[in-house]
Specification:
- The complex is a heterodimer of chains A (99) and B (174).
- Chain A has 99 residues and is an all-alpha fold.
- Chain A is built from 3 helices and no strands.
- In chain A, helix 1 packs antiparallel against helix 2 and helix 2 packs antiparallel against helix 3.
- In chain B, helix 2 packs antiparallel against helix 3.
- By secondary structure, chain B is an all-alpha fold.
- Chain B has 2 domains: 80 residues, Up-down Bundle (Four Helix Bundle (Hemerythrin (Met), subunit A)), CATH 1.20.120.1200; 42 residues.
- The chains are: A mainly alpha (99), B mainly alpha (174).
- At the A-B interface, helix 1, helix 2 and helix 3 of A face helix 1, helix 2, helix 3, helix 4 and helix 5 of B.
Chain lengths: 99, 174
């Protein structure tokens, strides 16, 4: 399989994740779509790693996995905090800072 | 054989990704993302990243998605309004996403990467992408990044407890 197939697949998955972030209103689903974009980036990184025959890219994908886990934990913590305060779980209505 | 595996994995990954965006229930979106990640792990195997394929399934599809499913169940079924407050975004969003896809594709395929059209470096060795090789690299060349990642995980865990924990002092909000 030529390398550009992987890169085009990665671009397509990134676009789908981006569309999800734009379209959806639920913060949980927006976080899921962010995961999609991160995994698309990981795919591109692995394709380049294979292209160069260098494993540094694989270590970076592992670090990206860690960053994704942190992002999920903080994001879902925010969602739970919003739910506890009985705020609407809709990013369009959450446009004002409240103390 | 490789082509068949790639297209099977690609179709599954794209289907799972579309499911995340299209399905209305966040619970089903999370399950669809698990499907996407499993197929993507198969594509990782084609790229000779055995360790990352396993880590993807164990960490992502196993651990992280369990958190999502728990939160989706805790928050409950949030009815997303059919009549959007910003209906224009529903039209513009996919168009922008398509433009982004085309732009990235043109940027990648039009670049002067010499490996385009080839399968990458021919002889990468038998140990490429094994846990041994990646672990050795991580603990020797990337030790600082490894330690920073562990610190980041600690900070994120504390942040989650602070954000989602009950506040007894404020009263009424917990």
């Amino acid at each position: 399989m030529a390398i550009e197939w992987y890169l085009v697949l990665s671009a397509l998955l990134f676009g789908i994740g981006f569309a999800g972030v734009m379209i959806r209103r639920n913060p949980v689903v927006i976080l899921l779509c962010l995961e999609l974009m991160l995994s698309a980036g990981a795919l591109a990184m692995l394709a380049f790693s294979r292209m160069l025959g260098n494993q540094d890219g694989q270590v970076m994908v592992l670090i990206v996995l860690v960053v994704a886990a942190c992002e999920v934990v903080v994001g879902l913590g925010l969602v739970v905090a919003m739910f506890r305060r009985r705020l609407p779980l809709n990013v369009d209505e959450m446009k004002e800072l409240e103390g | 054989m490789v082509e068949a595996c790639f297209f099977a994995g690609a179709i599954g990954a794209i289907g799972g990704a579309l499911g995340v965006v299209v399905l209305r229930n966040p619970f089903y979106s999370a399950l669809s993302l698990i499907v996407h990640l499993v197929f993507l792990a198969g594509i990782f195997l084609l790229l000779r990243a055995q360790f990352l394929a396993a880590a993807q399934i164990v960490v992502y599809a196993g651990a992280i998605m369990v958190i999502y499913v728990f939160v989706a169940a805790y928050v409950g079924d949030v009815d997303e309004p059919v009549l959007d407050s910003m209906p224009r975004l529903r039209v513009i969003g996919p168009i922008l996403a398509l433009a982004l896809f085309v732009e990235i594709s043109i940027a990648v395929l039009g670049s002067s990467l010499t490996a385009l059209g080839t399968e990458g470096k021919a002889d990468v060795g038998a140990g490429f992408g094994t846990p041994e090789a990646v672990g050795r690299l991580m603990l020797e060349d990337f030790l600082v990044a490894f330690e920073a990642a562990s610190l980041l995980l600690l900070v994120a865990a504390v942040a989650a407890i602070v954000l989602a924990g009950r506040r007894r002092t404020e009263g009424g909000t917990g």
